[in-house]
């Protein structure tokens, strides 16, 4: 049976006393840990994007947030208190649009069965009076026993994307906001612009005016029209550094699609390897 990829605040509250529940706060930013310590959902443990969910080296080789080695990630899951039977719920402070969705993708790619992202993230849960806490929290360490030995969800690399950019059978989807896609502004990477032939479907279009995911039916309709009958293996999603793109993959999973390819290196890698000015 397919596990829903999204959980609502009221649903989380109903299972909050479940012994195998593991809640994780994956907010980002320069003061993320300090903000977590000031206020987070009760029982939530902090996960650091740069430390737990990426192995950062040279952005020219893998982008700003390349995936860590698979074995390291499996050990990280154990240190966080996750085992294969854990019911994992993830949130961030950006409606799941940032590291929350990245952690979800990584767990799914590691073969974990029970993992969902909290609809609306921290802000919406707080508006619904979900219990909050402060300070640091942790779960007892486990040994995560994985049945697989490498990432299981579809990925592509920079050479694959270069070929796809020259092949009209492929669709390269840039989920960054339109101003960055158009090259009008670039607040993070060295060069503004987009990968040749890439089309823009901003991740924010997955959300309604309240910062909640649109219904699976609406998302399915919008993406079906956008994909134009392409097979998922000929669709590539990317963003700036392979984090926010996972928000759109989460939306696709929620809407019932087979997951297409993720290009983790994204614009941060591409723009450092090709002359795009």
Automatic annotation (TrEMBL):
Signal peptide: none annotated. SUPFAM superfamilies: Rhodanese/Cell cycle control phosphatase (SSF52821). Residues 17-134, 166-275 form the Rhodanese domain. PROSITE patterns: RHODANESE_3. Keywords: Repeat, Transferase. InterPro entries: Rhodanese-like_dom (IPR001763), Rhodanese-like_dom_sf (IPR036873), TST/MPST-like (IPR045078). GO terms for molecular function: transferase activity. PANTHER family: SULFURTRANSFERASE, THIOSULFATE SULFERTANSFERASE. This is Sulfurtransferase. It comes from Epilithonimonas ginsengisoli. The lineage of its organism: Bacteria, Pseudomonadati, Bacteroidota, Flavobacteriia, Flavobacteriales.
